[in-house]
Amino acid sequence: MIVVEHRYLGHSGLKVSEIIFGNWLTLDGQIAEDTQAACVRAALDAGITTFDTADIYSRGHAEEVLGRALAGIRRESLVIATKVCLPTGPGPNDRGLSRKHIMESCHASLRRLRTDYVDLYQAHRFDGNTPLEETIRAFADLVRQGKALHIGVSEWTAAQIEKGQELARPLGVPLVSNQPQYSMLWRVIEPEVVPMCERLGLSQIVFSPVAQGVLTGKYLPGREAPAGSRADDAQGSRFVSRYMSDTVLERVQRLRPIAEEAGLTMAQLAVAWVLRNPNVAAAIIGASRPEQVAENAAVGGRRLDDSIMKRIDEVLDELVDRDPAKTATMFAVMPAWRR
């Protein structure tokens, strides 16, 4: 029986499932809606209670699909998170963290998700063009209006998180989470972001724990990417390409016996690895098939011992990126609106 455990989010009383179902690329128009709905049902069947999305995913379509898939499920049993910042239209105010965009985007997300409130509303990126005071006050007003219960950020640097928390706490709406990229290969949050969040009471909700699929072991050195895989897709390949060297792929294959000895699949090993970090409340998984959801959810409650963690470090060693200056650099350029 799959047991997905729940963890407190930051210093709040909100519990999230340690495995979160996310619908970035997998629900971003890449698979049929009935398959998407089946993946959501598989997540619910596996004990996953937390779902993450964003207004920019497939230009709002992903939120609509998630809203339809969750229709009829007792709302109080779910934790729904979405995000705001990246472009949702062609206009000059259709992006960023201005009060106007935050308010309008929140209302649009609620309509698409078919709910009166979201449990977690997150700043998808930092907006250096808007006064942070304006951003935090807008989030605080949404909390007071009952349209968001908690607020968080995504891919903010340690300094940005510190300043944001400094402004949020006096308003009674402290930041409770940060959503960064984090995996065995990408550890840029460890030197600065994690220590700052531990001090300020935020948890990490990490995305891409399997490094865009590379840590599943499906990509083999010297071979073309499997047809239909993320590396074979025009959109997905933009994010996975930096891991596709034979050097990286050969090292990843050396993780296979470690996973087998632990009784885990490669994907499960990668998810269990990020959950070993005490500041990580949850790992976001995506799936294009219901069985993928069940596989990743099955890692719930599994904890890697120190010897396994050490062996993983010995295999990957110099390939690991720990440079905190690279926080959000993969997504630093705000994408243009696509009709």
Automatic annotation (TrEMBL):
What protein is this chain from?
A: Aldo/keto reductase family protein
As recorded in UniProt, coiled-coil segments are: none
Q: Which organism is it from?
A: Actinoallomurus liliacearum
The entry's family comment says: Belongs to the shaker potassium channel beta subunit family.
**Domain (NADP-dependent oxidoreductase): residue spans on this chain:** 18-316
Q: CDD domains given for it?
A: Aldo_ket_red_shaker-like
Q: Which domain of life is it from?
A: Bacteria
Entry keywords, A to Z: NADP, Oxidoreductase
